[in-house]
Amino acid sequence: MESYFIKAVITSKFQIFDHLNGGFARQTRSKRVLECFWRFSYYTFAFAYGCMVLWDKSWLWDVKQCWIGYPFHTIDKSIWWYYMVETSFYYSLMLASFFDVKRSDFWQLMVHHIVTIALLSSSFTINFVRVGTLVLISHDIADIILEFGKLTRYDRNLKNVTNICFVVFLTSWIVTRLGYYPFVIVRSALLDAASLIQPDYELLNLTQVPFAPRVIILMLFTLLILHIFWTVIIMKIVVKTVTQGEAGDVRSDSEASEADESQKLVKILIVQFKLSLSGLHSSNCGVKVFFCNFSFF
To answer: Which domain does 184 fall in, by range?
Structure first.
């Protein structure tokens, strides 16, 4: 009975500490589900809307049209809204990152959001909107499947669906992020843009103006580096899926890790208290030892 009481006291203290620190609010499964559902809903809407407004645009089918006639490209209302909604969403992602469940790739995601916002803002400012729309629509495809796959993970009866989603996601990721993006968009920006916009423009001549195209290309390459980084993470998940039979997320959840450490510490404190209690004749001395061990909180 006494051991049960001590365990209850220790657990209660950890719960109070977690609660005051916002732990319960951050660690709830419902919040994670809502986060995934919100992003899944948005990416689905954004991709559908992007297809609708870009379907009859020449640059969707021929990327060179992004450079021909530049900078005299008109932006109709549908493209303007598409750009504004996407830019606003990435602003919201960047701000929400500070409140969402923290992952081990937090800073990589932050860099991704900052680079994406910088790309969208600068490309809109210098009227590189056409290539910007191609980057957006090609990125949304894999994100839809990724967020849907995350949702299925919360239902143990949908393990097979989760694994199928992962295969589809992996395929779409490789095709869009490591195929279409670098070998169509980035390649065209490097090889076609200068000659089609300004024949005497040399990218490697850093003193030649304008400087904006070089900045845009640098940010495009930064995104590509991030794609490669996340591809390594995805490959780790592939290995985990093959060896363990279920797709998971190899990124560490900082709050979950903290909770695990707290549980381990609770067990250690209980063992220490029992050992102290067995070596002392007075229970008051044992309680004193417990609070000494607990004082670092």
So the answer is: 30-244
